[in-house]
Fold these 2 entries.
Entry 1:
Amino acid sequence: MGSEAQAVTSTVAEVPLSRRFGRIWWIALLASGALVLLLGYTLVSVTILGVGVWGVNIPFVWGFDLINYAWWIGIANGASLFAAILVLRRHDLRTAVNRFAEGVALFAVICAGIFPIFHLGRPWLFYWTFPYPATFEVWPQFRSTLTWDFWAISTHAIVTSLLWYVGLIPDLATLRDRARRKAVKRIYGVFALGWRGSVRDWAYHQRAYRLVAILVLPLILIMQSTVAFEFAVTLVPDWHETRQPLHFVATGLAQGLSIVLLVTVLLRWGLRLERYIDEGDIDLLGKLALASALVSGYLYLDEIVSALLADRSAQEATFNRMTGEYAGLYWTAIVYSILIPQLLWLKAARRSTIAGVFVGFSIGVGIWFDRYSIIVGGLQMDHLPSIWRTYSPTLAETGLFLGTVGLFAALLLLFVRFLPVISMFETRHDEHQEKSS
Amino acid sequence: MTQRLYGIMAEFRSPEALTDAVKATKRAGFTRLDAFSPFPLSDLAQELGVRTAVIPWIAFMAALVGAGLQYGSQYWMNAVDYPLNVGGRPLDSWPAFIPSTLIVAILWAGAATLIGLLLILRLPRLHHPVFEVHGFERASNDRFFLCILSDDPLFESAATRNFLEGLAPQIVREVPACA
């Protein structure tokens, strides 16, 4: 037993504790750091100059900001949902991917949160959404989906970060106890809060962790639906449909899974974690990504059928999205999020690193185009022909989007560098059970 | 010289050895003991009589408070304090108040459970007598420890030490109390 557990802990723990981390990591961090600078620049420019630097205008009041918001929040929700299901099912895959599925969710929600705040135009007044006793003596309008979203994003950020941190505490204690340098020991020690690994503490810890994981499940479903309601409650012909929440939940799960798949294969390759994330895990993730892509495909079909049954203006608006000015977006979404994932029917593709990266990336890109198609393409044929125009993002918007991608990558790289990417205590537990059975 | 003790601790190589030792210790009549392990041992927690039923109650009560507060404030703000007529909808538009009520209930339940967990475990507590024990750092890696606390009615430093030695541990060490 002793030597086995030792081996697990050392490989995973050596990663954050090692002094050097290789050149690729530095190059990746510098590249994403440059994008974070770009993010800072675009945020400052939109704060000083106002949303006029964006290409948004009536009817496209929601351009890149909402596209990217909906996209990031989909990743956050999909990854969280996946992590919660694994914990609930006590699935073996949980040990291998849970920690960074939660990490992906947390970093994505941070990226998502930037957009609605800056979309307000006066981001420094964002707290007006919170019901505080203002001098005007008015309150937020709670019948609006936008206020629901305020609660949803902040709840997601708070609950996911707490859950992630509480799950990390025992592993931080392991790092504290294994660190060789005093300063490193102190830093991990402070964050480990003095965890001693008492059997009593473990019992409470596991109960609380599982319970909050259960709570995340309904939160994600409500939250992703809320995002969809933001579209469904408007009178825009293509958006005003009860099927929107289902579309957003299903494609959101596909997105979350695809990014988890992407990160999993990259980490497995980069950190040589083949022993902890075995072929079976990768295979299963690939199958899940494929299944979720098929569900998305079903929902794209459902979109067509609903349009056929809808009134004429809704029908025209939806078909315009598939054949009109923005048809390219729609078909790109189909190709990337439905057709390319079909590669995963092949066992060899599910087990290959390159194919995993390619398909994971492709689903992510596909759903991004789907959001673009819904938000921009869907608005193009509104009820009033005099406002039929087109929208294209400006440099400030593209920079903002690339900046959040950089922020996400940078957070992920720092996480990989300084924290254990795999739950060490869960791995010890699993290996022990395997041995004794 | 007699040093004040926090307890006496025995080190084991496997969870099975620890579980057997805990059973033997309980049979011997000791009541104040603590076990340390690098991963959760639910059977042993039961053996030690750990009851975690308070956790779901914390979550449930916090959810009720959060839901009540959110629904109540939405109702009071939009229907009583500043009646807001939006397109002729009823002032108490309960279906529209439900989503954020559920979300905030989850916020309260999640935050209360996890913060409550830290309070129950009395963390953060960066220093603790057990950390003084040589070799205890392996409790977070691959070793299992049993500690009989000095406030146990049967505790008697030499006798307890002998008893623990009899359980075939790797080593037995004294845990000095904090000054």
Entry 2:
Amino acid sequence: MSHKIVIPLGPHHPLQEEPAFFELSVEGEKVTDIDITVGYVHRGIEKLSESKHFDQVPFLVERICGICSSSHPYAFVLAVEDMLGGEKNIVPERALYIRTIIEELQRIHSHLLWLGLAGHFLGYDTLWMWAWRYREPVLDCFEMITGNRQNYAIFKVGGVRHNIRDEDIPIIKKTIGDLTKVVDMFCGAITDDPVIKARLKGVGVLTKQEAIEWCVVGPTARASGINIDVRRDDPYGIYDQINWNVIVKEEGSVFAKIQVRILELYESINIICQCLEKMPEGEINTEIKDIPIGEGIGRIEAPRGECLHYVRSDGTNRPIRHKIRAPSYMNVPSNKTTVVGETICDAAIILAAVDPCYSCTDRTIVLDRITDKKVLNGWDLIELSRKKTKELRRNFKSILK
Amino acid sequence: MKAEAIKERLKDRIVNWCKHSERRIYITISPKDVKEVISSLFGDLHLRFITASGQHIQGGLEILYHFSFDQTGEIFSLRVLIKNEKKPEIESITPVIKGAEWIEREIWEMLGINFVGHPNLKRLLLSDEWPEGKYPLRQKDS
Amino acid sequence: MSLKLKVLTKSLWVYHAGCSACNNCDIEILDALTPRYDVERFGIVVVGSIRHADVLLVTGVPNYKTKEELKGLYSQAPQPCLVIAIGNCACGRAMFKDSYNSPCAVDEIIPVDCYILGCPPKPEAIIAGVVKLIQKVGKK
């Protein structure tokens, strides 16, 4: 007879980033329920923002999340420019191009980072090392343009702070050109690999209906067949003057999410190349003197999905309300649907698949509710996940048949 | 256009209609209609719920429910003003939209607005040692 | 104690605790492990449990929730345990010191042996900090 076991996951885990606490209830191998506790990273940024000048807030919101450190300032700047009459009307054209290039470089770095981590959770550490190695040249581009590898401090209301110098353009082009081959390699190594296919297809499926109910955004939604992308629907920057495609997959599984992200890498490379070709000369900044009374909404497509900022001003130099909605805020609760019914060894990769960066396995202790005896500990969740991959690898001839 | 369809459906429930710019529309409604209006926007007109934002302003507590219509890229923000500052209450929309669970919990702990009918109203972000009845996002001088 | 510390510096096993950090420092820590910097050459390994660790890396400014977690983590660490605070937030709370949810800095909760500044510090800076720490411990 099976009995119920509760597995606490987190809040501190060996590999990634923000602490979050998951409580998985399992029956035998099957996960029956999940309870998610967040708030370990809550720093009161919305309140702090009310005590900062409009020019200071971008530096603050940049530090919400290190991986999207250009998305949040961009969304904030868009919200303020919405009050001033729209981004297109006040920002010089060259600045729009620079904003778009920074956004897409960031998407490449974020997706590569996630691919590496996904590989790590599956037991493909080689993939992790590869992905992070090929991420470095992208960070070098950032360092060249903005002076910092992360936290770029490039966005300001009315324009950007740093120009892209002419002598840097060939270097960026070469970096991006080399990346195409790398992405080809990833495509071969991941989407054509029979073991990964067998491991991830049909795992953690979020159906289209569920995706609508949970209001998920970004690659998570696009992998479930919802055709949304803020870059196309509510264009900002220069996206409406560039040819690119929105990647949509119908399946909704972890495999579809990986596919969407890899194919988006090609689109990002394509967008950057076009921007560098078309970028005009000119000013990169307009002086903004006063922020009028009013309210504005800015939203952009961050690597994880739609990111929305709502700003209200009372005519002084500080916002009186600044609401931030990050994409993971909508994506993480959808785990309640995807994890339930799956096995424990799949839990790590499913929780990681929405790219929240929690994959949480450290201090994992399996508590037997009946005897209160510790059964498993530590890395066991990742270990379980890796064991399953190994087994599949061993039997992979039978999969091919 | 979606705006016409929304006007058609909500009719006299709209207290004020404000077109801020081409893609940003603010609609004021009365607090008692919230659940009804939102279930018809979400269920029948297929708008996507983005988030809600609460604010403490003069004269009460205001909630904005942001909805997106992705085919045209418009954002419709429903504005609701709760006048009772001592014991603010509003109907929960979580039974209609699952994705609204976290944001209602957040507004509840940050501004002290009670969401009637919420299935799981407990703290989301703040620690358990945070004092009861103290709300970080309320204005201090009122 | 000092002999134990000397032995420990031959191969540091680190445990990484993110306390309300914005991920940047955490990514840079992981970055130091990946091919370009590859600190594993020097026997520095990130481990999955504080009970196996010699060094505790702390990033971010603790809030009410992570404050307790950090105390707990440190009490479970096998002594001697070195603590490195990485990033401006962990070193001095930086721009979050006025926040309602940031009660204290890292060094008010646990003793810190080494501060690495930067927002975020580059992997080179992290490696340099660790080298300085090893030198300091070796002299004791």
